[in-house]
Amino acid sequence: MELLVEGKATLRGEVEISTSKNAILPILIAALLSEDQVYINGVPQINDVEIVKKLLINLGATLSQQEGQLSIKSFISNIYPDYELVRQIRASLLLMGPILATRKTVKISLPGGCAIGTRPIDLHLKGFEALGARITLSGGNVIAQAKELKGSHIYLDFPSVGATENLMMAAALAHGTTYIENAALEPEVVDLANFINRMGGSVHAAGSNVIKIEGRKRLYGCTYTPIPDRIEAGTYMVAAAATGGNLLIKNVIPEHVKATTAKLLESGAQVEERDKSIRVERSGPIKPIYIKTLPYPGFPTDMQAQFMAYLSHCSGSSVITESVFENRFMHAQELARMGANIKIEGRTAIVKGVEGLGGAHVKASDLRAGAALLIAGLMAEGTTCIANSHYIDRGYERIVEKLNAVGAKICRG
Ligand code: EPZ
Question: What average pLDDT does range 330-334 have in this prediction?
Fold first, then answer.
């Protein structure tokens, strides 16, 4: 699947942000913690959600959807999620928490590596052991078994989003109280905690470094609407600035995109925050800036590729340091095919601004790299053809329609 992007676009108008991919994936999985009916509103039509829905059905859940509302009635009759589905998405690792919590045993294929690094799961497994599980690895699978899960003090060597979420779900049904220390602070972690509490759970201080979870005997059905997607919002904010346009981004929580706003302002764009929307425009030159990706509330690694595309056409040299993943510069070589001047030294990229980019045949290596190439294509002279565009559809709902509605000319090849 390819995308053909006409260059020299100027984005003007309004765009509506969808529900957060990285909030809804753990929330759909956390629905497994109760056998009552759970209703989730605002479910976006993105490929990653489709895969998780198939995984839930594979485990024994019954799903039905009316418009954007998905209803889930869980009954876990299978403790070994289907390998063909698991291997397609890293978030399948989050199935361990609920299956272990409800069935006391789970067997799942170790996640394959992906374009942005090896992405180990040691912090997840260390936490499960702290809760009383025995971990064994065999034949490319990890098996976790426990007579019962008991509350514990868990220290995360790194504030891993997935490990915090996995362990929060397991602890929600454990006996006693669990503390997750050096927990991830991301808004998606807070949203998961709010969802578990809506189900009758007891999760306290999510969004701080130490999350306290008091285990419950059972959880109940509920209705929930996850937060909007702060990375989708950030991507459109950068696209507006990159094309010298003027976009009103609606259904966004300004607090969640503070780092993106700060860096856009530093680069010379204008950003106006309102209650649930943000206007971004740029008329002057793009100024060079320094970016270092960090866990939330630091600059998000999921916005790094988009900013690299934006800064490749600026008056001077920018420096981007990727401190979260060890190999997340795959988009640099593709941007170079469009004329960008980027020098990679370990985890640092020096982006020397060029007069302009030229359309070319490029290849997306992952979701955010694909978004970066889309932004570069909108800026470039001529047409850009993006191969592997299915990566983009994993996390951006109707992105071609949304961009074409504000002045882009993109079609699917
Ligand atoms: C989540 O991935 C997001 N995915 C990622 O978004 C995001 O980039 C990442 O958090 C960081 O913010 C979802 O929420 C579905 P981590 P996750 O565990 O949970 C290391 C996107 O584009 N680590 O916080 O996998 C790991 O190798 C995706 O939407 C361990 O060493 O991220 C990495 O270097 C991409 N051991 C760092 O921590 C572990 O056990 C951050 O990983 C776990 C992680």
Answer: 97
Q: Which residue CA neighbors atom 38 of ligand 1 most closely?
A: 160
> Closest Cα partner for 285 from 270, 272, 269, 271?
269
Strand partners, 320: 291, 349
CA–CA dist 189, 194 (Å, integer): 9
Beta-bridged to residue 50, according to DSSP, are none
On whether the CB atoms of residues 351 and 340 are closer than 8 A, the answer is yes
Which pLDDT score is estimated for 115? 66
Kind plus residue range of the DSSP H or E element containing 123: helix 122-130
Q: Give the count of beta carbons closer than 10 Å to the beta carbon of residue 254.
A: 18
What are the E-state strand segments in 182-230? 203-204, 210-214, 223-224
91 Cβ closer than 6 Å to some ligand 1 atom: yes
Residues 55-79: pLDDT tens digits? 999 999 999 999 889 999 999 999 9
Q: 229: CA distance to ligand 1 center in Å? A: 16
Quick check: helix, strand or coil at residue 191? helix
Question: Is 114 among the catalytic positions?
Answer: yes
Share of the chain above pLDDT 90, in %: 95
The two structure tokens encoding residue 192: 């998961």
Q: Is the peptide bond before 297 cis (omega within 30 degrees of 0)?
A: yes
pLDDT of residue 159 exceeding 60 = yes
Q: Is the predicted pLDDT of residue 116 greater than 80, yes or no?
A: no
Pocket test for ligand 1, best of 158, 328, 396 (most atoms within 8 A of CB): 158
User: 123 in ligand 1 pocket by Cβ < 6 Å?
Assistant: yes
Q: Which domains are delineated in the chain?
A: 2-17+228-412 (3.65.10.10), 21-224 (3.65.10.10)
CA-to-CA separations, 361 to 252, 295, 326, 352, 404, in angstroms, rounded: 33, 33, 26, 22, 20
